[in-house]
Amino acid sequence: MKITSNGIIDGIIQDKYGKRGELNTLGMPTYSLPISIHDAPEGTKSFALVIDDKDAFPVSGGFVWVHWVAANICRTEILENESQTASDFVQGVNSWLSMQGGQHPAESCSYYGGMAPPDAPHIYDIHVYALDTMLDLKNGFYMNEMYRQMKGHILDEAVLSGEYAN
Fold first, then answer.
1. pTM score, two decimals?
2. What's the gap between Cα 36 and its chain centre?
3. What is the full DSSP assignment across 129-160?
4. How confident is residue 124, by pLDDT bands cut at 50, 70 and 90?
5. Tens digit of pLDDT for each residue in 62-103?
6. CA dihedral for 130, 109, 142, 55, sign (positive or negative)
């Protein structure tokens, strides 16, 4: 399985998908990356998605920043900015919910919360999991709930990385 995004050019995430793009009233970047999934394994019933920033660990108070968590995706393409409008998959809370992110309400953080590295360019990993099942999750779920339900159901995983400048 492979994933691609035309929002990442030569390894660089384009400005509009982070803090130099559209911000909501809370100051959170919300214009989500487009993602395409190719060559999913036979038997795939759904996909799950996580976008994280491991470079955030030293500046976040000791944790990996989660930008987007989604599950029960039953198609191979997510259009740009579709996090705001999609109703055919569920989305979990991102790290903008945390103290470091401003403790925004869960309903404001249950979609894509884009890149905003404060100290240096960061590398962002887009993880897509092909699953042999649908997950029992509702909008606003926590990432750990998704990982617990995925256990034993992952057929394949692909990762795409990109850098976003501070």
1. 0.95
2. 13
3. EEESS-----TT--HHHHHHHHTT-EEEEEEE
4. very high
5. 899 999 999 999 999 999 999 999 999 999 999 988 878 778
6. positive
Tokens 């993602």: give the residue.
Answer: 35
Tokens of 119: 């100290």
pLDDT of the residue at 82: 96
Average pLDDT of the chain is 95
Q: Report the C-alpha gap between 24 and 113 in whole angstroms.
A: 10
- Using CA atoms, how far apart are residues 47 and 102, in angstroms rounded to an integer? 29
The answer to whether 92 and 70 have CB atoms below 8 angstroms apart is yes
Nearest to 70 by CA among 37, 102, 27, 100: 37
Q: How many residues does the chain have?
A: 166
